[in-house]
Amino acid sequence: MTGKRLRPHRAEAERTRGGVSDLCHSQKRLRPHRAADVRIRGEVSASARAGGGAPAPLKKVGLALLITLLLAVPAFAGERYALVVTGASGGEAFQQKYDRWRATFLATLRERFGYKSDRLLILAERESEGVQKATRANVQRLLGDLRRRLTKDDQLLVMLIGHGTSMDGEDAKFNLVGPDMSATEWADLLRPIPGRLVFVNTTGASFPFLHKLAGRNRVVLTATDSAAQQFETVFPEYFVKAFGDAAADLDKNGRVSMWEAFAYASAAVRQWFEQKGQLPTERPLLDDTGAGIGREAGNPGTDGAVAGVTYLEPEPAAALPGDTSLGALQKRLAELQTAFEELKAKKAAMPPDQYEAELEKLALEIARVAAQIRSKS
Question: 86 by DSSP, 3-state: which?
């Protein structure tokens, strides 16, 4: 990027510098205990001092810090919903294992992340208090209800635990009580639901779900990278465990993102097969670019940017403003953050000049909105 393009004239640059400063001040007000915010404020101040008041703070801050700034903006907290399904087990030993995984994961959602009962939907092989039977009709009914309840700011997690079956290599089924449902049928039911979708299929033969469900504003995980991998999987054991193990928190921010849980579980799966002296029969994949191809945790690829800032845990609570215009500005910040996540996910496929231009545009807009929030606070 050239100085000429970054500094069309001094007045705009001065406004930008003020906006970046206000962005940092607004972070201090909203999340005073975050160490990352302290580092960001310090780096911005250092950049300003190094430039001697130069009217091009974005150039001094640099791309890496801009990325940190953009991702550190507190998001406007939409609601979190979860649908957890354990399907037909096919035997008592499988049922006990699936029930244990489900109970552990639900305890995390309820007790650690604060999911309320009306936003935590549970289907299983056997009905019990708060748990409905995992039938095709119940899946259809619950997803239809969620389509009416969710907004574009909300997030839905769908997690499948149980058995999967390959159909023709291009499609697969998740085994329910009674008629099963194919990946195509799951995709059709989930397509109209607004907001961010996090879809985790932990079963064998789950790979076709990646291609069928991938899309914009979606994070899709499968336990296998091939429909032919139909053996019982160990991925769910470690995926569930990731949210209670500090070792999964790779960036040490006190939270485990979907990418971190995926990477943690993937490493544990590899280690499990190595200890058994067996060739792996499952290779977990993650897709968040919408390409439907996916990426293994240890391999290079474009997937992972959105998953890295997607959490099952609700966003840290900020004081909600009584001023509706202030609330609208905070919501706009969240929309800009989502736009940045999507831009970063597309970086590898974009010409560098176009990527940098769009990144600069986002940074300027975030600075402008942050300045407006500051003026109203």
Answer: strand
pLDDT given at position 111: 96
Considering the domain architecture, whether residues 368 and 243 belong to the same structural domain is answered as no
Per the structure block, which two tokens stand in for 341? 């996540």
Model confidence pLDDT, tens digit, residues 266-298: 999 999 999 999 999 999 999 999 999 999 999
Note whether residue 27 is domain-resident.
yes
pLDDT, tens only, 59-99? 444 554 555 545 444 444 589 999 999 999 999 999 999 99
Using DSSP's 3-state secondary structure scheme, residue 60 falls into: helix
Q: Is 201:222 a contact under the CB 8 Å cutoff?
A: yes
Cα angle, residue 143 at apex, residues 142 and 144 outer, rounded to 5°:
90
Q: Report the alpha-carbon distance of residue 130 to residue 103 in Å, rounded.
A: 12
Residue with tokens 């899309």: 215
* Angstrom distance (rounded) from CA 57 to CA 43: 11
Single out the residue in 309, 328, 362 at which a domain terminates: 309
Kindly state whether residues 302 and 324 are assigned to the same domain. Answer: no
Do 92 and 115 sit in the same domain of this protein? yes
Q: Is 112 in the same domain as 189?
A: yes
Q: Which tens digits make up the pLDDT trace of 128-144?
A: 999 999 999 999 999 99
Percent of the chain at pLDDT > 70 equals 77
CA–CA dist 266, 229 (Å, integer): 15
Output DSSP code: residue 123: E
Q: What is the pLDDT of residue 234?
A: 97
Helix (H) / strand (E) containing 333:
helix 324-345
User: Cα-flanking dihedrals φ and ψ of residue 257, to 5°?
Assistant: -80, 170
Residues 133 and 234 in one domain: yes
For residue range 331-347, list pLDDT tens digits in order. 787 778 777 777 876 78
Q: Is 164 helix (H, G, I), strand (E, B) or coil?
A: strand
Which residues constitute the domain of residue 339? Answer: 3-74+319-376
Query: Is 5 within 8 Å of 361 (Cβ atoms)?
Result: no
pLDDT of residue 377: 61
What tokens appear for 177 in the block? Answer: 């009580």
277 with 360, same domain: the answer is no
pTM: 0.74
